[in-house]
Amino acid sequence: MNAVPKKRWFRILPAVFLMYCINMIDRNNIGFAFPGMESDLGIGATYAGLAGGIFAIGYLFLQVPGGLWAERWSAKKLIAVALIAWGLFAGLTGFIQNVTQLLIVRFMIGFVEGCILPAIVLLLKRWFPLDERARANGIWMLSIPFAAMIMSPICGFILTYATWREMFWIEGAFPIIFCIIWMLCITDHPKDAK
C-alpha cells in the first residue's frame, strides 16, 4: 500500500471522528444543564424527556434529503453548513427563557444534525473501498462511546466554573471553530485531493 491510501486513514477519519464527537456532545449535553435549567426556568423531568424527543423528531427530517444533497452538491460543504448551524443553535440554547424556546431550539438542533449521518456515510463510501469500509465505519462509530466518555468531564469542568448558559455558549463554539479544520482536511472525492 503506497503513502496516498495510508493518508486517508490519518486525514479523513480523524476529522470525521472529531466532528462526530463534537456532534454527540452538543446532542447530549443538555442532560448536564437540566439541574440549572430546572431551578432557573422551572423546567422539570417531563420537559427533559420532551426536549430529547423533539430533538429526535427534528433529526428525522433531513435524513433522506441530507443524503441526496451530499450526493448532488457536496458532503464536505453540507457538513460545514451543518457545523455552523448546529453550533449557532447550540449556543442559542444558552439564551432560552422558557420551555417553548427550549423545544424550538432542540428541534432545530436535531433538524440541522439530521443531515450529518448520511453525508458521512457517503463521504466514507467515496474514500474507502468496500473491503476497507467496515473498518473505516467502525473507527468513525467509536466516536460515539468516546464522546460519551469525554463529555462528562468536559461538561462537568465547564459547569464547575460557569453556568449552564455559558456551557451552551462554550460548547456551541466548538463546531463553529472546528468547521475551519473540517474545510482544510476534507475533500469530497479522492480524485480532487492534492
Number of discrete helical segments? 9
Query: Could you tell me the mean pLDDT?
Result: 91
CATH topology: Growth Hormone, Chain: A
Find the structural class using helix and strand composition. mainly alpha
CATH class reads Mainly Alpha
Radius of gyration: 17 Å
CATH evolutionary superfamily: MFS general substrate transporter like domains
Oligomer: single chain
Shape: elongated
Helix content: over 70%
The separation of the N and C termini measures 18 Å
Spans where pLDDT lies below 50 across 5 or more residues = none
CATH second-level architecture: Up-down Bundle
Largest sheet: none
Number of domains: 1
What's the helix-strand series? HHHHHHHHH
Strand content: under 5%
Total beta strand runs:
0
What's the quick description here?
The chain has helices spanning 3-28, 30-41, 45-61, 63-92, 99-113, 116-127, 130-141, 143-161, 164-185.
Topology, pairings included?
Elements: H1 3-28, H2 30-41, H3 45-61, H4 63-92, H5 99-113, H6 116-127, H7 130-141, H8 143-161, H9 164-185
Please describe what this structure looks like.
The structure is a single chain. The protein has 194 residues and is an all-alpha fold. It has one domain (12-192): Growth Hormone, Chain: A. Helices cover 85% and strands 0% of the residues. It contains nine helices and no strands. α1 (3-28) crosses α8 (143-161) and α4 packs across α5. The model has no long low-confidence stretch (mean pLDDT 91).
